[in-house]
Amino acid sequence: MQCDVALEGERERLFKEVTRRFPDINVLINNAGIQHRPPPLTEAQEWSVWQRELATNLEAPMHLSCLFVPHFQKGREAAIINVTSGLAFSP
Predict the structure, then answer these.
(1) In the chain, pLDDT over 70 holds for what percent of residues?
(2) Rounded to whole angstroms, how far apart are CA atoms 77 and 28?
(3) What is the DSSP letter of 86?
C-alpha cells in the first residue's frame, strides 16, 4: 500500500487500512525519511522544503506511533522500530 507519510490524512488512511486487513498486526517500522540539501541559512529559503522534511522525518513517526499504540495495547506483545540515518549528522 502506498502512502505519503508527510500527509496526515495519508497516515490515518494507512493505519485504518492496515489494521482492517491485518487485525493482528503487532509491529510498526517507521522507516521513511528524506534529506534535502538547502542553501545556507544566510540565503533565501523555501519553507515548504523544510516543512516536508520535518513532516516526513519527525511528524510521521510520531503520529503513526500515536495511531498504532492503542491498537497494539489490545494484543499481547508489540514493537515499534524507528530507523534513522547517520546522514542526519552530515549537513
Answers:
(1) 95
(2) 12
(3) G
Q: What is the pLDDT of residues 74-88, one digit of tens each?
A: 998 999 999 987 766
For residue range 4-61, what is the model confidence (pLDDT) as tens digits? 999 999 999 999 999 999 999 999 999 988 888 777 888 888 889 889 999 999 999 9
What long-range pairs does 1-10 form, CB within 8 A, spacing at least 24? 5/32, 5/55, 5/56, 5/60, 5/64, 6/52, 6/55, 6/56, 6/59, 6/60, 7/55, 8/59, 8/63
Closest CA to 49 of 60, 32, 36: 36
What pTM value is reported for the model? 0.86
Quick one: which H or E segment has residue 20? Answer: helix 8-21
All three cell numbers of 53, joined, read 522534511
